[in-house]
Design goal:
Length: 311
């Protein structure tokens, strides 16, 4: 079991914000970037596993938990979030890192690879596709549009109230309760997440990426689906090796439309589909996720598409 003594906590003053991060081990830097509504703690099993042979670091992104939480929506633009990661890598004394991101953490990891490729050795994206594929799915695929209706709530003025009421009942229902019922979260884990949700400004900080990036399907106030995640980019080609891991039972991000054509943007690509896993694959199947990452780190030649066997 991972004990608190195994993890070092610190802060980095970078890019105009203070970022909290947790780390374990020494060696090649692997930087883990959490999604919504999570924090560094989402990667505790990865810190234990990869911290044995690498320098494993998991941060709280700006807006979350113990990191700075600017109040302005435009403080959460994708350029700034990507710059946070590039600056943190430099702060940690490294030129490059292996980036591992899940959900909107993977959105940020893709942005780093596109905007600061000199800082990325390899990229692991978990249940998130290249932003051009994600945008196309939001614009054109009715199934993805239906699955993404929650994004209208996340971008609304009432989002904080809705997500916080009844002791974070909405987040318990979609995230914490399934973990408790299926045994991959303990009551202690739930307390950690609830404490993070309750940090002043944390709900707004987590939601502001959706607002700043204008992520969502067509709907009221957003007649055209998509986002501004690729705005200003001269090229959409990702030059570093990429591993995409996808829990195929994800009800929010559907693999079929999101992965279609991704190879056009990623010359060195490996895709691993896990049929029985959901959006929360990092928690449900840590052994599968960790083994896939280890294999990806060890490989020297480009890989192809493969399908994982059910656990």
């Amino acid at each position: 079991m991972l004990s608190r003594n195994d993890i070092t906590h610190a802060h980095a003053d970078v890019n105009g914000v203070r970022l909290h991060y947790a780390s374990r081990g020494a060696g090649k830097l692997i930087l883990f970037i959490h999604g919504f509504p999570e924090l560094w703690y989402a990667w505790k099993r990865q810190l234990f596993d990869f911290g044995r042979h690498h320098r494993a670091v998991a941060l709280d992104q700006r807006g979350y938990n113990l990191s700075s939480k600017p109040s302005a929506v435009d403080a959460y633009g994708i350029d700034l979030l990507a710059a946070d990661i590039a600056a943190l890598i430099e702060h940690l004394g490294e030129e490059k890192a292996v980036l591992v991101g899940h959900d909107v953490g993977a959105v940020v990891a893709w942005a780093v690879a596109l905007r600061h490729p000199e800082r990325v050795e390899k990229l692991v994206s978990i249940n998130m596709s290249h932003p051009a594929c994600f945008d196309r799915a939001l614009r054109e695929d009715p199934a993805q549009q239906a699955a993404s209706q929650y994004m209208h709530l996340f971008r609304s003025r009432s989002a904080e109230e809705h997500l916080s009421q009844h002791d974070y009942g909405f987040l318990r229902e979609i995230f914490l309760d399934p973990g408790l019922s299926q045994g991959y979260f303990s009551e202690a884990d739930v307390r950690v997440y609830l404490e993070a949700f309750a940090q002043p400004g944390a709900m707004t900080g987590g939601l502001n990426l959706y607002r700043a990036a204008q992520i969502g399907p067509p709907g009221p106030g957003k007649p055209v689906g998509g986002s501004n995640l690729t705005r200003g980019l001269r090229s959409l080609t990702v030059s570093v090796p990429v591993l995409v891991i996808w829990g195929e039972r994800d009800p929010y991000l559907l693999p079929a439309s999101n992965l279609a054509g991704i190879e056009l943007y990623v010359p060195d690509l490996r895709v691993m589909r896990v049929p029985e896993a959901t959006h929360w694959i990092v928690h449900e199947e840590p052994e599968i996720v960790n083994a896939a990452i280890r294999g990806f780190l060890a490989r020297e030649r480009p890989g192809g598409h493969q399908r994982a066997k059910p656990a």
